Here is the input.
Amino acid sequence: MRITPDTALACREGALHVSTPTTSRGVRLPVDHLFRSLAHEYGGRAVGIVLSGAGSDGSDGIRALRAAGGLTIVQEPATCGQSGMPRSAMDTGAVDLVLPVADMGAALARYARLAADTTGPAADADPDEPSSGLADAAIARLAGALDAQSGFDLRAYKPGTIRRRVLRRMALAGFEDPTRYIEYVESEAREQQALIRDLLISVTDFFRDAEAFAALRSEVLEPLVQAAEPGDTLRAWVPGCATGEEAYSMAIEFLDAIEARGVRLGLQVFATDIDQEALGTGRAGSFPAAAVERVGEARLEKYFAAVPGGGYQVVPRVRDVVSFAPHDLTRDPPFSRMHLVSCRNLLIYLRPETQAQVLGMLHFALLPDGCLFLGSSESTGTQPFLFATLSKRWRLYRKVGPSRAAVVPRTRPRTADDRDPAFTGGQARPPRADRGGIDDRARRAVIDARVPPGLVVGASGRVVFMHGELRPYLRFPRGEPRLELADLVSPELATRVRAALYRSRRDRSTVIAESSPEPGTARRVRITASPVFDLGDEAVLLTFETVEREPGAGEPAPAAATDTAAETLERELLATREDLRNTIEELEASNEELRSSSEESTSMNEELQSANEELEATTEELRSLNEEL
Here is the structure.
C-alpha cells in the first residue's frame, strides 16, 4: 500500500486512516508513525516488519512495538537492496528476529500459534490466572536457573508478566515444549540474557507524556530551583533508566529551570538499571533522529549536536550531569538524599509485596519533602502513609514522615532444585544428596590429565583458585606475596589476558584469545576465559594452552607459518586495536562507577554528619533533663 506525499498513515479503531502530518520539522518518518499507532492500538498483538530501504525510518516505531510487547522482525541486511532501514532498526536493540523474507511467513505462523495465550483476551482478563501453556513448576525451575546462573530474581515479577514473556521467548526461539525450552535456557547464557531483557522491557522515550513533564516542571522542578541557595546541588535518581532518555529528559528540564532563575546551581542525575547493554547505549548519549522527534526544535538545537551520517549526540553539558551505573532496585541498597526520584512504568510489572518493598526504598532515598514521579498506571496505593499526593492525574507525590531503614533482601543464589515455596505450592524440594564413593586421587588424576592449567579470578581481580603447572604463564614478583592477577600474569600475556577477561564479563560468554608468536617460532599461548556463574557474576575461569604451529616432517606448512611478515604484523595490529578498544570501554565504565561511588560516599557522609548533629542535640536535651531531675 502506498500513501500520497504529505500524508501520514495510522491505525485507529481497527481501520487504517490517512491524515495530514502534524510534524513540521525535518524529514517526516511515516513508518514510525504507523508502527506507533499499531503499538497503541493492538499492544502485544501488533507485528512490525522492516524491509529493505534507505534511512532510519521505522527505528523509533520498532522500539514502541517492543515496549508494547509486540513482535518485531527485520529483513536480513545481506538480502536487502538497501540495508539502511534494517540496520538502523537492529541498532535499537529492540528487534526480535532478523530473517530473509522467505522465512518470515513460518516465523509469523509459529508466533501466532505459540503466543496466543500471551496476547489473547484470556491473558488480559486476569494476569495472575494460571495459564495452561506454562505451569507453576516450570516457572519455579526457570526462576531457580536465572537466579543461580545470572543473579536475576524472577520471583519479583507478576506471574502473568512472567508467563507472557516466557511464552513469547519460546515462540521466538522455536520451542513448543516448556521443558525443552527451560533446558535450553539452563545451558545457553545468551538465551538467559535475551529472556531477561524481554522481562526488563528496556524501552523509553524523551519527554514521554509531555503533559506529565509540564506538570513536573511547574509542581516540582521550579519550586526546587527557587528554594535552592546559590552553590547548592540538586540531586535526582532515575531507577530503571533503560537507554537513558528519561534521565536526559530530567536533566534538560532541570537545566532549563536553573537557567530561567539565573543562579549557579549544581545538578546530578543518577541513572541506574540492571541491563548493562542499555546502560552502554545511555553512556554513549547518541540517538537516532526518530528518537529525538518529541524533543522540540529549540531544545534539539540547544542540547543536542547532529552526528555525521544521521542521528544526534547529547551535548557535554547535559552528558556531564548524568551518571550511569548498574543497580537492581529489588536487591541493591538505594541511593540517598535525593530531591527527586523518577521511577516510571516499573512498579506495574512487580508483585505487590515487591512494590511495597521498592516504595519503602524510594521513600528512604528522598530528602524530607522530596518528590516521587511515577508512571501513568502506577500509584503509592500499597504505601499511602509514606507519600502525600501532589498531582493524582500526573502521579506526583511528596515524601512525608521520617526516613525508615530500607529493607533489602539478601538472598543466596538458588538452584533449580532449591526453589521458592511460593512457586511450588508451598512444597520445597529437599536438597540434592551429595554423591560419594569417588576416589579423590582418581578425580585429581583425571583433571590433571584432561584440564589445561588455569585459575579462577574473582570480581576484585584476586586469584581464588589455581590448577596445573602455571609457571610458564605467571610470574611471582619479589616482596610481600600477592594473589592479584595483574601482578602475577607474564608481561607478554597481560594485554591479551586483560582483554579476554573484560569481554567475558561484559558478554557473559566464553572468549578465546591468542598471544603474539615468539620471535623465530610459531609458538603461541591460547587463553580461554569462561564465566563461572556459581561463584558470582564477575568470577571467570582462565586457562592457558601452548599452541605449536611449526609443521612436522612430511606435513604441509600451516597458513600461519607461511604468512609473510607484513601479514603477521597486520594481524597483530588488528588484535592490538581490539585490545585497546576493550581497554577504553573498560576505563569508561570504571570511571562512571567510580563517579557514582564517590557521589554516594559524599551523600552518606552528609547523612552521617546530620545524624551526628541530631545525636548531639539529643544529648543536650538529656543533659538538661537530668539537671531538672
The CA atoms of residues 418 and 456 lie 25 Å apart. Confidence is low (pLDDT under 50) at residues 117-132, 410-437, 551-562.
